[in-house]
Amino acid sequence: MGKRVALVLAGCGVFDGSEIHEASAALVHLSRGGAEVKIFAPNIEQRDVVNHLKGSPADETRNVLVESARLARGNIQDLAELKASEFDAVIFPGGFGVAKNLCSWAVDGKNCTVNEHVNSTLQAFHSAKKPIGLCCISPVLAAKVFPGCEVTVGQDKNVDGRFPDAETASAIAELGCKHICKNVNESHVDQANKIVTTCAFMCKAPLHEIFDGIGTMVQEVLKLA
C-alpha cells in the first residue's frame, strides 16, 4: 500500500503563490513513488496579487485556496481540515506564496509569524514523528517553528551567481537552526526531526536539476514514512 501524503499549497504562481514547477515536480515524484496524495491550502486572502507578465502588483484580491485549486485540478481541501493522523507525511512546495501567505517571511524575515493552520499542521506531523518535506523557501517554516532543526536552502554564499538569496541561510542560523549547504540536485535529511529539505528555485539552475533535487526530497520523505 502506498504512503499517504498531504501536499500543502500557497496559491498559484511563483510571485504570489506556490511555484508551479515545484508543485508539479513533487506530484510527479510522489506518483512515481506510489504515494496516495491529497492537496490542501489555507482558506485565506493572499497577501498580494502579482501580474506575472509585468512583474508588478495587480489591484485585485484572490483567495489562496481558490487559486491553489488551479494546481490541484479542483481536487483540494481547506488546510483547516487536514488531520495528521490520516497521513504518513506532509510536503510543502515553495514559491513566494509560502513567504507571503503561509507566513510573513517576505515582509518580516526571521521575525515572521506563521499562519495558525500551517503551524498546527507542522506541529502535528512533528509530534507524531512523521516526515515533513520542504523545498525552495519553505524550509524557513521549519526553521521558525522548530528551533534547532537542520535545513537547506542551497548555499550560504552566492556561488557563481547561482544563489542570489544566499542570505536566507544566515537568517535561518539566527533562528538557532543549522543550515546545511547542498547543491540543487541534493536534499538534506534532518534525521532527528524527520525534516527533508532541498533548495529548488533558490538556485538558478536548469529545470531538470531542480526536478531531480525535488525527487531526492520526495524519495527521502517516502523512506522516512
Automatic annotation (TrEMBL):
InterPro entries: Class_I_gatase-like (IPR029062). It comes from the Eukaryota. CDD domains: GATase1_ES1. This is GAL3A protein. It comes from Halcyon senegalensis. The lineage of its organism: Eukaryota, Metazoa, Chordata, Craniata, Vertebrata.
